[in-house]
Amino acid sequence: MPFLHRNNRAELAADWQDLVARHVSAWKLLDDQERAVLATHLEVLVTTKRWEAAQGFELTDRVRTVIAAQAALLVLELDLDHYRDVDSIIVHPSTMRFDRTSQGPVPGTEVCGSVDLLGEASFRGPVVIAWDSASAAARHPTRGHDVVLHEFAHKLDMLDGTVDGTPPLADPDLRQRWIEICTYEFDELAGSDGDTLIDNYGATDPGEFFAVVTETFFTLPTELEAMKPELYDLFRAFYRQDPAARVRRHGRTLR
Asked: If both were cysteines, with which of 1, 101, 126, 254 could 88 make a disulfide (CB 3.0 to 4.6 Å apart)?
């Protein structure tokens, strides 16, 4: 386990808005009301969550502000209580390597090995983020990849106690449509040849599907809306946001 530097009582940077404007591409697409909500969420995340740095990494105002802004974007139209089980945010400088044990080829056996990760989320525990990946995705969203959106989406999925790709949905009709459409799209992704808008990592299991589609929904919204309109509508209903409309309104992409 890497040594952690704890910074439990962070304050919101005086120049937070400049940091977000320069380092978080999505900020340019938000209207004044959305920016005001994001600012409120961002301040709560920075000042009330425990921030920790791993492997000698230095937690700066920019690091906390950029990660918090990305996490705040996810719940812009949801209650910030959705992050009640995020007790801390641990930031590594880059890709992390963890030792893992998995089931072996013979029943009753185990295989030990290492795995490289850009992030991780655990039940009622921390969110772990690789800063270099988070920073790059915030400034220049790539083909549907954003580790902050991905890991915090897992925390939303965990709210009902099960990582099954179906976040808490109060509307039974929406829940039924969610299960039907996501099951179909998951199976289609699992059977694809790899050249897909939604990253094939989403075919790992339903939980990863939800997190990966969340990334695509926020970073490639017009493409997802055009290619998977029913899936896009589901995520728009859950997040109560329409990022594709934002892009069209501003006549620009997130690049």
From this structure: 126
